Amino acid sequence: MKTTQEINNRIRSGEATVIPADEFKKRVRDGETFMVEDVDVVTCGTFGVMSGTYSVLTVPVAPPGTFRKAGSLFLNGVPAYPGPCPNERLGLIDCIVYGTAHRDDHYGGGHLFADLAAGKTIEVDAEADGRRYTNDITISDCGFAKLHTTRSAFKNYTAFLRREEGVLETIFSVTGLHGSCREISVSGCGEVNPVQNDPSLRSLAPGTPVLVNGVNGIITGTGTRSTPERPNLACSADMNGMDPLMMGGFITSDGPECLTSVAAAIPVLDSASLEGLMVLDEDISLPVADIRDRQPIRESDYGRIWRGTDRGVRIHPDRCQDCTPCNARIICPVGAIGEGHTIDRSLCLACGACASACEGGVFGINLGAIQIGEGEIPVTLRQSDRTRAERLCRRLADQIREGSFYLREGP
Q1: Most buried by CB count within 10 Å: which residue of 23, 268, 308, 391?
Q2: Residue 86: which domain range?
Q3: Residue 223 domain-assigned (yes or no)
Q4: 368 belongs to a structural domain
């Protein structure tokens, strides 16, 4: 039995054994046996579409006394909600912005949050007392900028298909989910997900430090719709210093969604915590449901999603049919495809949308398939990026080794 205080002392002295989840899982899969004394911390992470994300901002609009009370506010065209403080006669507007709010079909709250984090100039457009006020700001002009998640780092998700004929616009697809049973959409980072490695939330308790979009934050509790069987977390962090590549927007057939990332350190306190960390993709349930009623009809596992599948998109430029416009470029939900079959790998989620859209097969990726009855249905969209999640695991491990990140002490 170890305590978090003892592990923190080992971190301070540079003696702690810290292993990123991707490395730890590989060693487990290779047959290595671990004892409690062999490892102190395993760092876990997840990255993907998390709709329950919002920000609270203080936005400068005009000099004090210019207007009494704002009626509406838009940031880069994304609607914000003034209040709950009335902001009376200060020239400032306290507001809430939802990650799922959107200006149009191609820009929403997630894009706005990433642009703020990147230090880009944001256009402010407010209405107050029957007059319009505009301003240009950056995040450094905001006296307050916090990001919160109402539900994130889900233990696992549900894979979705459509059994009826036709196409259904949904946040779980980019071009609409095609039936009957032609494709499956999946989410979740499987064995490296923090909650999957601590499903009872023994160490992931309120007040626990985490990384949210790459910066220090805290867990504020369980999130909305969290249950003992399928827990998730609510988190909070200052937006200043967030990594714009660990967050952002994702275009679906039902409008823009928000990309969010969470990383956490799971301490190895005893055999129970070590046993929880032994979970592998093939052990993790993945329910499959019809998008119509979202009731599970089959059950698969994350081994089908992350074992033996591709982590990146392959490019075959010789197959190009010179389509105008390029369907893959238009459909890419993160705008990663450029001219001449190029892909900005720093933006690409390896979601697979381009492979489905390109008739010539210029873009290729194996996303796996799920057994349904006697046949297999191909996965055509992944809304989580395991590569970036594992990058977060390593980043957090480095911070702990450097002594810049510590565990929460106490019960």
Answers
A1: 268
A2: 1-155+189-280+384-411
A3: yes
A4: no
Angle between helix 386-402 and helix 21-29 axes, rounded to 10 deg: 110
The pair phi, psi for residue 84, each rounded to 5°, is: -75, -20
The pair phi, psi for residue 221, each rounded to 5°, is 150, -165
CA distance 142 to 180: 49
Strands 255-267 vs 145-152: parallel, antiparallel or unpaired: unpaired
Is residue 370 in a domain? Answer: no
The CA distance from 355 to 347, in Å, is 16
184-186 and 375-382 beta bridge pairing: parallel
Q: What is the DSSP letter of 34?
A: -
Can you tell me the distance from the alpha carbon of 169 to that of 163, in angstroms, rounded to the nearest whole number? 14
Alpha-carbon distance 235 to 233, whole Å? 6
- Please say whether the dihedral angle defined by the alpha carbons of residues 106, 109, 115 and 121, taken in this order, is positive or negative: positive
Query: 310 in helix, strand or coil?
Result: coil
Question: How many domains does the chain contain in total?
Answer: 1
Q: Quick: pLDDT tens for 285-332.
A: 999 999 999 999 999 999 999 999 999 999 999 999 999 899 999 999
Is residue 162 included in any domain, yes or no?
Answer: no
